[in-house]
Amino acid sequence: MELIIIGLIAAGVRLSISIAYAALGEMVGQRAGVMNVGLEGIMLFSAFISAWIAVVSGSPWIGLMAAVLGGVLLGAVHALFSITLGANQIVSGLALVVLGGGLSGFGYRLTIGSSPVSIPYFHQVEFGPLSDIPILGPIVFGHNILVYIAIALAFLLYYLMPRTSLGLALRAAGENPAAADAAGLRVNALRFGAVVFGGAMAGMGGAFLVLGQVHAFVEGMVAGRGFIAIACVVFGGWHPLGVLLACMGFGLADALQIRLQTWYPGVPYQFFVMFPYVVALGTLVFFASRSIGPAALGEPFRSLRRYVKLR
Predict the structure, then answer these.
(1) In degrees, to the nearest 5, what angle opens at C-alpha 254 toward C-alphas 250 and 257?
(2) pTM here?
């Protein structure tokens, strides 16, 4: 039983990381006042790009960088439409979901989908004797480098958001953009940068699925993780460590449903597969009315300073 629980927790940590990358990036964007519901499309597009470039280059690092660039590109598209052009953020995000799904499917069939390929991936980091420590060894020291980067990112954001001028400026842009603008901050530039950062992190999340978890690309493999990442931002209270813990909770739910399929083969597997999504839905229903997000989240902003200058 002990081995089963240790294996479940270790798998839960690993399965949470793709969601954690996307959720931490989305938290920064929402803190600045912009919601991106297109994470699903960005993750799927980046997953394909990481697989393709890793196969062509033979390096998972180059595949990872290509995925981040892909995420930056789609994040910039969302920022262009929702911030610069003032389009509805939800509509722009949903367009990204469709665009990412279409580009990944078409690109996959056009490139590596025609024949079986072996995708280079990130191997487990060697910690020597630390990996043999009972209980802690498999849970803490049994993962690849991308797992530790995600955890370090959460702690870095925990420090940056409330303690640095950049973090405070981003929060001001999401809480009271008019006051931030009057104080001399370039609100829309801050928002643009936050959304692009969120796209890059969603790209990391998509790449992790391919290069750090499954070691293969399958159409539609993101399977709702982008939407779960948004739920984790709400569940985590827009706090970096809270978001990370929420993602690990969903990772545990995902790991549990995989094991339940093995333990109860007589039950249709679809019943267990929907378990993490039911948890996500229940969490949103329960916490959405209790969590208080950034006051200006989802509201476009137009600076009045240039009109003042004209006078």
Answers:
(1) 135
(2) 0.93
